């Protein structure tokens, strides 16, 4: 990978518009299936039963991590407004980074997307909010 980056690095550009979805759907596709989420919590993290409270705690921990990340790096972190195109809302921040010839995370935009409920034969877990 390092050789590839040296040879083609000047030709590469990468933009994430929503890290959560990109990571889960692109890099952790197994976590999109209910049985794999059950495996993740029960077998990997030894959590049983998987309750609404367990998922809420995991979500709260993640939100605190994102907030600390943004604060430490002085990155704006805001809730999206209904009816406003996200790309239009953050474009001024992107332009500022481009003018400075800087790269990296320049804005974190939160929204309250509801995901479908996950159920197994032992527990029922309600809808979980995604931060993107």
Description:
With 132 residues, the chain is mostly helical. The protein has five helices and six strands, in the order ααααβαβββββ. The strands form three sheets. Strands 1-2 form a two-stranded parallel sheet. A two-stranded antiparallel ribbon has the order 3-6. Strands 4-5 form a two-stranded antiparallel sheet. The longest helix has 22 residues. It is extended. The relative contact order is 0.13.
Summarize it.
The radius of gyration is 18 Å and the shape is extended.
Topology:
Elements: H1 2-8, H2 19-27, H3 34-44, H4 52-73, E1 77-79, H5 86-99, E2 108-110, E3 113-114, E4 118-119, E5 124-125, E6 129-130
Order of SSEs: HHHHEHEEEEE
In whole angstroms, the N-to-C terminal distance is 29 Å
The gyration radius over C-alpha positions equals: 18 Å
Strand order of the largest sheet: 1-2
How is the biggest beta sheet arranged? 2 strands, parallel
What structural class do you assign from the helix and strand content? mainly alpha
Helix content: 40-55%
The total domain count is 1
Mean pLDDT: 74
Silhouette:
extended
Strand content: 5-15%
Q: What is the tally of beta strands?
A: 6
Q: Report the uncertain regions.
A: 115-132
Number of helices: 5
Question: What attributes characterize this protein structure?
Answer:
132 residues; mainly alpha; disordered C terminus; two-stranded parallel sheet
């Amino acid at each position: 990978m390092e050789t590839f980056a040296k040879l083609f690095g000047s030709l590469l550009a990468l933009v994430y518009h929503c890290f959560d979805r990109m990571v889960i759907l692109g890099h952790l596709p197994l976590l999109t299936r209910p049985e794999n989420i059950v495996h993740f919590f029960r077998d990997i993290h030894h959590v049983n039963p998987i309750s609404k409270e367990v998922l809420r705690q995991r979500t709260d921990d993640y939100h605190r991590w994102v907030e600390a990340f943004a604060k430490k790096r002085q990155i704006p972190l805001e809730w999206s407004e209904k009816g406003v195109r996200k790309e239009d809302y953050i474009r001024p921040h992107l332009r500022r980074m481009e003018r400075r010839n800087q790269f990296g995370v320049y804005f974190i935009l939160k929204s309250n997307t509801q995901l479908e409920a996950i159920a197994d034969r032992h527990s029922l877990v309600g809808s979980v909010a995604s931060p993107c």
